[in-house]
Amino acid sequence: MNPSTVCLSLGALLALLSLPPVAHAEPPGPAPAPAPDPAQKLVGVWAGDITNGPEARGPLTVSREGDAWRASIAGFEAPGRLEKSTLTVTLPGGQGELRATVSPDGRRILGHWVQPRVLTGGVQYATPVELRALRKGVWRGDVTPWADRLTLYLTVYARPDGSLGAYLRDPEKGFGRQFAFNVTMNGGAVKLEDPRGPTVFEGTYDERLGRLTVPIFFLGHVAFTKRDRNQAVGLYPRTPAAPYAYTVPVADSDGWATASLADVKMDPAPIAQLIQRILDTQPGPQPTPVIQGLLIARHGKLVVEEYFHGFDQARLHDLRSASKTVAPMLVGTAIQQGAKLGPQTPVYPQFPAYTAAGPLDPRKAKLTVEHLMTMTSGFDCDDNDDESPGNENTLQSQEGDWYTYTLNLPMGRAPGEPKAVYCSAGINLLGGVVRNATGTWLPEHFLRTLASPLGIRHYAMNLMPDGEAYLGGGLSLRPRDALKLGQLYLAGGVWNGQRVVARQWVERSVAKHSEMEPGRTYGYAWWRHELRVGGRVYAEYEAGGNGGQYVMVVPELDLTVVFTGANYAQFNIWKTFREELLPRYILAAARP
Predict the structure, then answer these.
(1) Whole-prediction pTM value?
(2) CB 204 within 8 A of CB 190
(3) Residue 54 contacts residue 201 (beta carbons within 8 Å)
(4) I need a surface site. Which of 123, 152, 356, 442 has the fewest CB within 10 A?
(5) Residues of CATH 3.40.710.10 domain(s) within the chain?
(6) Measured in Å, how far apart are the chain's first and last C-alpha atoms?
């Protein structure tokens, strides 16, 4: 059969059946590549620096001509007022205030600078200032207010499924720790959405400027820019990353003698392991230990001083509730200065201007200074109960007198019960007792009786709305100065040969007075524990604060330790600083 005839016949048949002719298939080519996700440009570390002043800072010059006083700082000028030896200068527009004392010889003006309320926290601070005479009638010194600053790190990362996630971190306040986001981008519009709740941030990405702008609550529009590993100094333990090498701390003029670990019979190996562990801890979406400072002193000498996450020797650190311990210290120094106070002093008669709104609960007549110091006041005040009227957040939402608010609290139990209840309002009330017994503004009393004898020249005391110091927590110190508080009590109230607090007061302060929970007893705002290392058990007392702020004292080893950290509201993490890191590395390194 002729093949062509067959083809024609088949073609005719297909046409007759109205079927399309058979097409020859081409071999398949590669699938087109998917379009790149533009949101991938966001992957990396972004940082937003927020600085809100204050404007009044730097050299402060005060002059006097006859009875007229004037002050100038940062372009501001204001008159001064001298009453007896107290000089007050108030800048226009509420930009700051000087409250200071002129020395009898006229050579110094010593006191505090009160700055405006900060935006990232909402409180005022008092910081020390000293002016020295340049010539007759002219004094000058530097004002260094608490810096109203915040650095937010936004880390965007790709998940295995290709979607994007992000988390916020900041080294100062712990603001970003509660946020985790899904990230999407449509054009230049960026959405950060927390899958666990209602939080959604909608911002913009400007590729030309390399800027990601996101409105974040009260912080306003935060402008983030990309940072590489060596620029994100607050996010990583250190930049650049490097293996740890021990160095002896440098002695300066703050009163600390320094020595090597070997000099005080401490094994360097466990200490090096601890610090390397800190350096190896990397940020991520899940919470990790964030230690910002570690200082160790033994036999009265500073032997370890290490800082991380952008902190250094000069930078103040918020001690949070670790500074509660300062309140009983100031009671002790007031007694030493002659104030008619003692542990059994009734509290309510120390507030003669107080008038109860109704009949006074008879249990309040039994409330003593010691009850406030040991968290056994009996007030309906529990910082761990949001419904408690004395809860610290409720107290700090008041615009009126916080002392009066505390005195008006209902009683939840009789004062003095051995089971303590954590109550910041009660500790803060000690400030009113000291102020009324001494007739002295609390920052001034702190400066004269504690800070000056200890050589603490830089600090920031947070103030209540009425301008008095808040003693329930939040004092900011250099870690070297925080360590002095532990060393002072370890030495029985003496610092560098000078008696600062009476030995009897120190011994009474660190003794057991109440119990918070099994295994955790309480003195005068000192926590008390027992720590096991191998077959040994060591008694330890400490001042402790949210985030991992610790001033630790181990008398048997003649040892004081400071941790500062940023694990805010993550007690399960920062309690390991004491429960694991202290015994495993530091106590184990201390030879008898």
Answers:
(1) 0.92
(2) yes
(3) no
(4) 356
(5) 321-378+404-489
(6) 112
